[in-house]
Amino acid sequence: MDVVRILIAILLPPLGVFLQVGIGLHFWLNILLTLCGYIPGIIHAIWVIIRK
Fold this sequence. Notes:
mainly alpha
């Protein structure tokens, strides 16, 4: 299942984080990072998915 979440995180980083942790600090941080730049959002999303 993590492979699917990682693929979703590459396409839509906030959705990948939402599927892993729900609405919380990491979700809002990922939205901010994605708005600042797409690549930081992807890196953060993959980090959250792999970490848990």
